[in-house]
Give the backbone structure.
Amino acid sequence: MDTSNNKKKEIKLDDDAKLSAFKWWPNENIILIAEKYNDGDSSYLKFESYNAKRDEKSALSNEKNKELKISLLDNKYDVSDIAMSTASNVTYVKISKEGSRSRLYCINVMTNTEETKYPSCKLGKIFVENKQDRLIYEDNTNNRIKGIGLKSPIATGENGIHYLLGIDGEDRIYIGNGENQKVKKIFVINLKKTSENQKYSLSEAAEKSNIHITRNGKIYVNDQSKNVVTEVSSGKTIEYKGNLVEIYDFGILSKNDGKIVNTLF
């Protein structure tokens, strides 16, 4: 949907393809699309790039014009998460199926792919730092937030369950602390300048899914029952209409009476 003119565009997949996942590139009008194919006894993922402004869809391929594909162990595997770095143009793809260890793949700037090894654990949410290609992830086996290449977990000094909430454009890492998918405290971790680390205590525990981190480093908590979003550091509240869809640097997108409404901060 083009919000400037309310025109809709349909992105069509190949007849034998199934949509596995999609994600917008940060700050771009481009969608990365993962399509799953079943070819007899084998299954694989193929990746497409859709340019919304040009209304063009094309297969990702490397410098040798070889299409980007990832083979799957069986057809029950699907893309469960995608993390992107805009500065280094590196993308991590998490592929999972119920009851099995997730697999992690890195797509580099040359559109080549390789499997990324990580310590044995149940892999949770993943994000990638914006200014470099280091992956930050949830180790749900040991209740830790870790990074590929980091010797130690990213510590908060708190007990409870740790949830990886996001990473902003300056590579600050946002970690929620609480239980039962609810967050009571939020820690902002700067791996390069630990003196800038911050902690916020919420007045009421918030569902993890109601906490939004913007690229410019703002933390917003949505209260759907009141149609109100609160900016954590200032306590400022913003009202919106309908059901919240997304929060971005400049405002709130919500769906009200079948229309997308933009409420600016």
Remarks:
- Residues 69 and 79 are 13 Å apart (CA to CA).
- The mean pLDDT is 93.
- Residues 17-209 form a domain with the Methanol Dehydrogenase; Chain A fold (CATH 2.140.10.30).
